[in-house]
Design goal:
102 residues; mainly beta; five-stranded antiparallel sheet; 5 strands
Length: 102
């Protein structure tokens, strides 16, 4: 994508130089979000493993997700602020509702 800057070329940047940037499309306030688990897309419902108090175990919980970016996803239901979940692929443990962490 090519974007033109109106009289705002950063100092030390010459013609044809590449610049990394971020475009904010929307700002959400009072939203619970987590790192985006593997295989979870926006506007979906699934189960994830949430760490229990002390972190020695994780239990399967149902979660409804909303909007997503590449790294983060909005939580609509199922988790609260401060909950920690496992983001990696846990499909090998699909038949278990609780696992012990080592």
């Amino acid at each position: 994508m090519e974007i033109a800057l109106d009289n705002a070329v950063p100092a030390g940047v010459g013609a044809g130089a590449g610049i990394d940037g971020m475009i904010d499309i929307e700002e959400l306030k009072n939203v619970v979000n987590v790192g985006r688990p593997v295989h979870v897309g926006p506007d979906s419902a699934t189960t994830v493993f949430r760490l229990t108090v002390g972190g020695a175990q994780a239990e399967r919980v149902s979660v409804t997700f909303g909007r997503a970016s590449v790294q983060m996803i909005e939580v609509l239901e199922g988790l609260k602020v401060g909950d920690q979940i496992i983001l990696s692929d846990m499909s090998n443990w699909d038949k278990f509702d609780r696992i012990r962490l080592k």
